């Protein structure tokens, strides 16, 4: 089989189902990636810290979060008709509509219009005239679906790993389509995750340090991320380079999970922040399973991308008791790993349930994604053995 192919030819694989949805979603994520790269550069190089706000739960939100949500919402609505598009997404307009947020709101409007004007290179027709503030706010607030067991809805995390984003590090744009409770499409934009996996090891601030030393070269590190995507049941997952300039979308190559099943050789990834997943617990699991490599701590769903690409073998997340995992933090990544040949379940071995609304209700303890069944079983067994002493 031809491993490298232009992404457009995916439509002619014989299975036309979701072909248009996939095409539009991939293009929308490419546009969103370039938008985010620009905002992140501005934040890191020009110190534009006004573009970062704090949400009620103290987590950061930036003009990139709102701008991506508006841009993707607008693109999906144009392609399928506003009445046919239902979106569950992370951001709302409450804080953006406050009187003291007027300058951030105008930055969002400007950023969205810039992104849409340059979308033509991906084959997306830009708006006839620039979007007005009310139209941008409408596009953001249209993403008010609450999900559920029936019908079709999109799931969007406009900037996953916002902490990584504001620190000049890894982040992702995640878009998935859910139909009757099942994720049928997943697209993951990883603007700082180049085709070369070695870059992942320079995590936690490497880019920030690099940024303070050199200005970005448009053809350099800031423009060589990737976009991954998969369609449920196709048994294929794909990766495209993220290309800057006027080059449009590059050719896609098929990705597969790693074949390593020996724990001694395997690498596991986990969230950077201890508050998001217990490092102590996973350290104990790693020890009992016989994992020797240092954990790869990476912000965002780039961890899902790392497993799908075969750059690591295991992803574990064990949040504190009572934390409700959100569907937008996982939907796109799950289908991409599964179609690349991997397994994603909760710690009881059950698939994640995207049919219960905005949260992964019923999740048993934590999330385990693995390249293959042998590692997966070993981790689940280790969780059972140590759960009672985990303090989680
Ligand atoms: N307390 C707690 N426990 C577990 N998970 C939480 C918690 N708080 C937030 N979140 C969600 O985690 C998302 C970031 O996950 P990451 O794996 O990227 O974590 S980390 O930043 O690398 O530590 C993050 O996504 P973003 O908000 O899009 O960045 C949150 O949805
Ligand atoms: Mg997120």
From TrEMBL:
It catalyses: 3'-phosphoadenylyl sulfate + H2O = adenosine 5'-phosphosulfate + phosphate; adenosine 3',5'-bisphosphate + H2O = AMP + phosphate. The keyword Metal-binding applies. GO terms for biological process: inositol phosphate metabolic process; phosphatidylinositol phosphate biosynthetic process; sulfate assimilation. Pfam families: Inositol_P (PF00459). Keywords: Hydrolase, Magnesium, Metal-binding. Transmembrane segments: none annotated. Mg(2+) 2 binds at residue 90. It comes from the Eukaryota. The keyword Ligase does not apply. Its EC number is 3.1.3.7. GO terms for molecular function: 3'(2'),5'-bisphosphate nucleotidase activity; metal ion binding. Its cofactor is Mg(2+). Mg(2+) 1 binds at residues 157, 160, 329. Belongs to the inositol monophosphatase superfamily. Converts adenosine 3'-phosphate 5'-phosphosulfate (PAPS) to adenosine 5'-phosphosulfate (APS) and 3'(2')-phosphoadenosine 5'-phosphate (PAP) to AMP. This is 3'(2'),5'-bisphosphate nucleotidase. It comes from Mikania micrantha (bitter vine).
């Amino acid at each position: 089989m031809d491993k490298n192919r232009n992404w457009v030819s995916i439509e002619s694989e014989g299975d036309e189902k979701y072909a248009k949805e996939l095409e539009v979603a991939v293009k929308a994520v490419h546009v969103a990636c370039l938008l985010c790269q620009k905002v992140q550069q501005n934040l890191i190089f020009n110190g534009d810290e006004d573009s970062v706000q704090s949400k009620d739960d103290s987590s950061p939100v930036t003009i990139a979060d709102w701008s991506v949500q508006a841009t993707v919402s607008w693109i999906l609505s144009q392609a399928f008709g506003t009445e046919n598009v239902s979106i569950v997404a992370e951001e709302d307009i409450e804080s953006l509509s406050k009187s003291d947020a007027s300058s951030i709101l105008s930055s969002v409007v400007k950023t969205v219009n810039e992104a849409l004007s340059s979308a033509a290179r991906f084959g997306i027709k830009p708006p006839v005239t620039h979007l007005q503030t009310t139209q941008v706010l409408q596009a953001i607030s249209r993403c008010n679906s609450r999900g559920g067991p029936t019908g079709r809805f999109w799931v969007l995390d406009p900037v996953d790993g916002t902490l990584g984003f504001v620190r000049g590090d890894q982040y992702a744009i995640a878009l998935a389509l859910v139909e009757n409770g099942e994720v049928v499409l997943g697209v993951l934009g990883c603007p700082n995750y180049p085709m070369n996996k070695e870059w992942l090891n320079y995590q936690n601030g490497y880019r920030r340090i690099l940024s303070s030393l050199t200005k970005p070269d448009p053809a350099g590190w800031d423009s060589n991320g990737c976009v991954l995507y998969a369609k449920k049941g196709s048994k294929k997952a794909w990766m495209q380079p993220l290309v800057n300039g006027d080059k449009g979308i590059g050719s896609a190559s098929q990705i597969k999970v790693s074949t390593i099943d020996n724990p001694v050789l395997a690498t596991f990834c986990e969230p950077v922040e201890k508050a998001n997943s217990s490092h102590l617990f996973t350290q104990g699991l790693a020890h009992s399973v016989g994992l020797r490599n240092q954990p790869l701590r990476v912000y965002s769903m780039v961890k899902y991308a790392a497993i799908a690409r075969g750059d690591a073998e295991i992803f574990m997340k064990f949040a504190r008791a009572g934390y409700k995992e959100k569907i937008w933090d996982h939907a796109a990544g799950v289908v991409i790993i599964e179609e690349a040949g991997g397994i994603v379940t909760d710690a009881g071995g059950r698939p994640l349930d995207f049919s219960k609304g905005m949260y992964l209700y019923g999740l048993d303890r934590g999330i385990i994604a693995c390249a293959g069944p042998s590692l997966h079983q070993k981790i689940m067994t280790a969780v059972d053995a140590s759960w009672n002493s985990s303090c989680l």
